[in-house]
Amino acid sequence: MQSNNKENLQALSGLTVLDLSRFAPGPFCTGILGDMGADIIKIEEAGRPSGRRAENGKGKGMPEVREFAPPDSPYDPSNRNKRSIGINLKSDAGREIFYRLAKKADIVVEGFRPGVTDRLGIGYEKLREINRRIIYCAITGYGQDGPYKFLPGHDVNYISQAGYLAILKEPRLPGNLIGDIAGGGMQAVIGILAAVIARAKTGEGQFVDISITDGVIAQLGPYFAAYSMNKKMPDEIDLVSTGTVPFYNLYRTKDGKMLGLGCSEPWFYVNLCKAMGCEEMIPYQGEVEKYEEITERFSKIFLTKTRDEWFDILTKSDIAVSKVLSFDELAEDPQIKHRDMIVELDHPELGKVKQAGIPVKLSATPGSIRKFAPKRGEDAVNILLETGYSKEEIEKLEKDDVIYTGEKA
């Protein structure tokens, strides 16, 4: 495992997070907090879980899904640095465990629809009675209020509702990156850390209301500003960043791979044309009617060399160019390798395991990878002992199916 060289001092050391979330936004959020040193306690189900896939990779009645690794996979970065306990929150004894954990915790993160945790008796108002310093973050599709607050949804619904797909020439779903990860998970991290700073001033916690739809709209700020200013939707040429112009686009090369061009500035475009040997295209940069001709010309030229050959040529001429890398190329890319963004960890059973690294680089209190994703309930005994339960009490709780320790199928 990775560790920092400052005697394991980390930015969020000392903070305890109770993680009730199941799907992408919540685990991504708490994963970042865990990388930065917070103690993340995953509160999972005591019985058969709905948030974790069955061992064969299939949920009951659902087709096999291969897009993501299971939450307890050693390859999954969003659940590393976490501990797991299974609790039956529908039982009085289970809620009591949660209350005792919440009394000492700093942060709670959940991703249920509004009102679910209140009905369980573990909502913000109840926890605030127990711990005035608690910071409670709820990540939902549409927020805690408004006419859509109870609507079910997934990433596709939120990016549609927020207007993201409207800026694309040919709408295509970008995975769950724009909504769940950037609109939900990242915004939740920002909100939680802001609340931590505020608590240092006021002495009290607060409710952090994160709407994934709101987060997507915020990302569209520059586009909406142009729309408001011009009183019309941008046309294709205005949408430079979506690949509608020849100098900001993707091109296939001789070996079937691709390059990404970002030559929006006039000088980059001039340098590009010179390096490609098509100086005759330089005067056409601002002539929209010539863009199709320029694109065709560039496309033919790029097919004369391999991706890596073009990258070597163009990077020597101050041109905004990049390789379109496949996943199996990431770990060997010199920039990504230098930044430790694909790390190789030693697993006791699987040997070398690769994960995405830590993106936030802190000079004095860097993050670290200390633990692989936990099996459900594997830390239950230690967590309960820390909370004040005796071994005998823990054995009874397990016998009564109030908790799940991972020791029985």
Short account of what is shown:
With 409 residues, this protein is of the alpha/beta class. 35% of the residues lie in helices and 13% in strands.
Beta percentage is 5-15%
Query: How much helix, percentage-wise, in residues?
Result: 25-40%
Classification by helices and strands: alpha/beta
Give the termini separation: 29 Å
| Count of beta strands | 12
Poorly predicted runs are 49-59
CATH architecture identity of the largest domain: 3-Layer(aba) Sandwich
Write the CATH fold name of the largest domain. Rossmann fold
* Overall body shape: elongated
CATH superfamily (homologous) name of the largest domain: Crotonobetainyl-coa:carnitine coa-transferase, domain 1
The main sheet orders its strands as 6-5-4-1-2-3-12
Q: Report the major sheet.
A: 7 strands, mixed
Radius of gyration: 25 Å
Number of helices: 15
Describe this structure in words.
The protein is α/β, with parallel strands linked by helices. It has 2 domains: 16-219 and 341-404, Crotonobetainyl-coa:carnitine coa-transferase, domain 1 (Rossmann fold); 258-323, no CATH class. The protein is 35% helix and 13% strand. It contains 15 helices and 12 strands. The chain has helices spanning 25-35, 92-104, 116-120, 124-130, 155-161, 177-202, 212-219, 221-230, 266-276, 291-302, 307-314, 327-330, 334-338, 380-387, 391-399; strands at 16-19, 39-44, 82-87, 107-110, 135-140, 207-211, 250-252, 258-261, 321-323, 342-347, 351-356, 403-404. Helix 5 (155-161) crosses helix 6 (177-202). The model is unreliable at 49-59 (pLDDT under 50).
